[in-house]
């Protein structure tokens, strides 16, 4: 029988904060001679909250109490209680992720919002979620063409290219509607340093209180729209576009055949109200500039399934994967939050010689970092022999302090049950948690939830925490949905 799970998505962005709720459907598959697996087979977004202006104390700090009040209000409107939520994500995106208290706000919101709601941020993560929420993956699978989704928000523009329904490339630029804030009288209220420097290259001097005429504002918007097109692979990349890259741009190995647009600025592309300063920023002007840009106009375009809600829908219903097989024994407490993952070099039997030394290094690093709990990830061969699994179990039980703490053992391929049982035979009194069907990378963290599907599988969110350097965490790169689970 299908099982359902309530998921929440919360996006604390540069311009707006949004909340959505989804109902995920889980189904068990597998029969005689095959290991049972649980997959997410459906999602129903039944509540989309109105976008709220993200409350800030000043240019360096988020208003934590204000954010919490907005989220509490949305929960009440939806008739939901935090205890009902079993999975999802809180993501702090764009320029908001650079605020000094971003990490503390994310953790506080995740604790208050539900039992399995997680805090995460980062350009790759955001790009992927926006693309999924916009439906670019489904469009790519249906048409057999490469689809590029460009999510233009308040502070950044996130690119995600899908090929045959799978994520193929990501990139991000520091371009967004709030890069220039404009008062209703037409004077500039604020401008980002990157925007100011780019405009100087074009002989345009913009400072606080600079008076913008309509022609000047449209010229500025056209410059940034051209940069967006260049970053999409639709023209030679100029030095200005390279300068605006957040972390990394698209690799350019594959060219898009269809483009979709999401984010708040996408809603402004067809704006004909005449109120160019409706949001007190460059958003409407930038949207119109993208719509008239010659390079974009030459491309096949398809309206996104979601625009302003794309990222938060991705966060609420696309961020979870489910373990394929699990061995679970002993007294374990869920959920496990923010568990750092240490990948180990194990792809073939020959690599087992290196594992004892690497396990010692991992244990030392976890002690230096004061990690109460950490996980290890083993890619491993697809079908290791019985002898190889036994040898691996020997190395793990000798090299990890499994009697002292729970250390989740994560493997990519389908041998968690055999490995977990081998570990259990060696340590019958120790709690053992071994998961497969999950792929992690260096710098990833995992949240591990309550068992589902009659206890045979466990929901896992793989994430990277990317906050400002002031918080002491600067991880980059995110692979949140492993192979085999990208249809979530």
Structure description:
The chain is of the alpha/beta class and 488 residues long. The protein has three domains: 3-121, Nucleotidyltransferase, domain 5, CATH 3.30.420.530; 135-305, Nucleotidyltransferase, domain 5, CATH 3.30.420; 325-436. Helix content is 28%, strand content 24%. It contains 13 helices and 21 strands. The strands form four sheets. An eight-stranded mixed beta sheet has the order 14-21-20-16-17-18-19-15, covered by helices on one side. α3 packs across α10 (310-317). The longest helix has 18 residues, at 214-231. It is elongated, with a radius of gyration of 23 Å. The two termini are 19 Å apart. The model is unreliable at 31-35 and 465-488 (pLDDT under 50).
**CATH architecture designation of the largest domain:** 2-Layer Sandwich
Q: Which outline best applies?
A: elongated
Instruction: Give the mean pLDDT.
Output: 85
Distance between the termini: 19 Å
What's the total helix number?
13
User: What fold name stands as the CATH topology of the largest domain?
Assistant: Nucleotidyltransferase, domain 5
Q: Give the low-pLDDT segments.
A: 31-35, 465-488
Tell me the total number of β-strands.
Answer: 21
Largest sheet: 8 strands, mixed
Spatially, the strands of the biggest sheet line up as 14-21-20-16-17-18-19-15
Strand content: 15-25%
CATH class of the largest domain equals Alpha Beta
Helical coverage, percent range: 25-40%
Based on secondary structure, the structural category is: alpha/beta
* The number of domains: 3
Global Rg: 23 Å
